[in-house]
Structure formats: structure tokens, C-alpha cells
Write a structure and sequence with these properties.
Distance between the termini: 13 Å
Helix content: 55-70%
Order of helices and strands: HHHH
Structural class: mainly alpha
Number of helices: 4
Shape: globular
Length: 82
């Protein structure tokens, strides 16, 4: 995987939808939606181990911060997912 490798697996657009719907969901529903992203990343072999670890770290941060702080971490995560 090169420095500028792009992942065309549909996970990034799915994450964007989760974040958009998360504005209207309960905390529990939002966490369930994030779990779908985690499962998709686990199953995707195009990510390196280091990329997956970074993704898991950022997903954990998103799950554990106030909703107003989520976009900051989501932006960082989108860079890794793409």
C-alpha cells in the first residue's frame, strides 16, 4: 500500500451516513451504528494493521466524547478510511 493509496470499499460513505444519522439517534442507536463500521473494517483486508488500529482508536474516541466533539474526530477518521 503506497502513501497515497485510496480505499474504494464503501466504508467511508457508510461512516458519513452514520455520523449524519447520529445527530438524530439516541446514544445507544449511534453506538450500534458505529459497530457496523467496526465490523466492516475488520472484514476489509485492504487496510493495513496500522490503519486498522488508527481506525479503532478514532472510533473509540468518537464513541466516548460528547456529540458536539464528534465531528473533529470524524474528520480525522475520514482521512484514514479513504
Amino acid at each position: 500500500m503506497g502513501l497515497f493509496h485510496k480505499h474504494n470499499n464503501g466504508i467511508a460513505p457508510a461512516f458519513e451516513k452514520v455520523m449524519e444519522h447520529g445527530k438524530r439517534e439516541t446514544e445507544s442507536e449511534f453506538l450500534d451504528s458505529l459497530n457496523l463500521i467496526v465490523n466492516a473494517v475488520v472484514a476489509d483486508d485492504s487496510y493495513t494493521i496500522n490503519e486498522k488500529l488508527k481506525i479503532y482508536e478514532l472510533l473509540t474516541m468518537i464513541a466516548n466524547v460528547a456529540p458536539s466533539e464528534r465531528p473533529r474526530y470524524a474528520k480525522r477518521l475520514m482521512r484514514v478510511l479513504d
